[in-house]
Write a structure and sequence with these properties.
Layout: E1 4-13, E2 17-27, E3 32-36, H1 43-51, E4 58-63, E5 66-67, E6 78-81, H2 93-103, H3 108-122, H4 137-149, E7 155-159, H5 167-184, E8 187-192, H6 195-201, E9 204-209, E10 212-217, H7 219-224, H8 229-234, E11 241-248, E12 251-254, E13 257-260, E14 269-275, E15 281-282, E16 290-299, E17 304-310, E18 313-319, E19 328-332, E20 339-342, H9 365-372
Parallel strand pairs: 3-8, 3-9, 6-7, 7-8
Antiparallel strand pairs: 1-2, 1-4, 4-5, 9-10, 11-12, 11-14, 12-13, 14-20, 15-19, 16-17, 16-19, 17-18
Helix pairs in contact: 2-3, 2-4, 3-4
């Protein structure tokens, strides 16, 4: 096991296109890091540079104290699990697990012991004499992980290993990967475009966009304090509601509504305001209200996702199945649950609400705008 350092790493293709642009990440020994982002954001390219399958254009990668930019992939002391399993179809499960160790001239007794340990850990002992074609997708993925485990590398690299599995199997395999990583304690980098998978597995998330890092943090930190509108819209299901708004002192104008948030935000005028679907509630009498026009409803059993419009802007509320709905209704939100972003660049605006003085009251927008001119 070892720490991994990624320092100002870039990947530049012919024509000057930067698939990865000056990325730096410090990964601690035994940490499980997930690279997450949409297709084309550079996450797999970054992983392949760590693996040695792509040349590093700029910057350096270290494993432990060793710089590995010019080290052959076979000598980097890493093990990679691929999306397509990459098993040898003509070999048995045992031989697939043992292949890499045999190439390294590992004694047979040690090979037998390592294969038996990995098979027991992954519950694939009954399949050791089968060939891959006789296995299910989940069993093949276990074999692929077993082949990485028997090597006892300094780091595991996972390149979207669950994307070929059905939804139910993906859920169970996520749990198995997390338990396995905790048990063996090996430093791991995992690539996925699935934000739910990322939130479930990661010790820390690295959110990538256009080859650059948008945010690094623990899953709940990224969820509750997104650094940009991109992160806010990508992390979370449903995505955070993002609407155009205006600030007038401590009053926030969203569409026809004007809410008192108790304390001025450092930026005034046009902003983007964000709020999570689960933070919206049916408005009680006298509370701050957002007029909401219902468009359609998703019934999920434990909750219902109500999609509609706040003014003329789309928004989603996660409400209890018992909530009485009407075509037009008022929703409320606590000021502490609001997130503010720069209207132009989309970066987070630091703001702490005054919980003692925040007054959840509705005001007349024209009156307040006139008073603040």
């Amino acid at each position: 096991m070892a720490s991994i350092g990624i320092r100002d790493v870039s990947k530049i293709y012919n024509g000057g296109v930067k698939a990865v642009n000056s990325v730096s990440i410090d990964i601690e020994d035994g940490e499980f890091i997930v690279l997450v982002g949409p297709s084309g954001c550079g996450k797999s390219t970054l992983l392949r540079m760590v693996a040695g399958l792509e040349e590093i254009s700029e910057g350096k990668v270290t494993i432990g104290e060793r710089t590995i930019n010019d080290v052959d992939p076979a000598d980097r002391d890493i093990a990679m699990v691929f999306q397509n399993y990459a098993l040898y179809p003509h070999m048995t499960v045992y031989d697939n697990l043992a292949y890499g160790l045999r190439n390294r001239k590992t004694p047979k007794s040690e090979i037998d012991a390592r294969v038996a340990e990995a098979a027991r850990m992954l519950e694939i002992e009954p399949y050791l004499q089968r060939k891959p074609r006789a296995l299910s997708g989940g069993q093949r993925q276990r074999v692929a992980m077993g082949r990485a485990i028997v090597r006892k590398p300094s780091a595991f690299l996972f390149d979207e290993p669950l994307s070929n599995l059905d939804a139910k199997l993906r859920v169970s395999m996520r749990g198995e990967i997390k338990r396995l990583q905790r048990r063996v304690g090996t430093t791991s980098i995992y690539v996925t475009h699935d934000q739910l998978e990322a939130m479930t597995l990661a010790d820390r998330l690295v959110v990538l966009n256009g080859g650059e890092i948008e945010q690094i943090g623990r899953p709940l930190e990224v969820y509750h304090r997104p650094a940009s509108t991109f992160v806010a819209s990508f992390i979370g299901s449903p995505a955070m509601n993002l609407v155009k708004a205006e600030l007038h002192g401590s009053r926030l104008a969203i569409g026809p509504a004007l809410l008192d948030i108790g304390r001025s935000v450092p930026v005034q005028g046009a902003v983007t305001v964000g709020f999570r679907a689960e933070d919206l509630r049916p408005a009680a009498g006298g509370s701050a209200a957002l007029p909401f026009r219902v468009d359609y409803i998703e019934e999920l059993g434990s909750q219902r996702l109500v999609h509609g419009l706040v003014g003329d802007q789309p928004a989603t509320a996660a409400l209890s199945p018992e909530t009485a709905l009407s075509e037009e209704m008022d929703l409320s939100i606590a000021p502490s649950r609001l997130h503010f972003f720069d209207a132009e660049g989309g970066k987070r605006i630091a703001w702490t609400p005054d919980m003692a003085t925040a007054a959840p009251a509705v005001a007349d927008r024209a009156e307040v705008e006139g008073a603040t001119r």
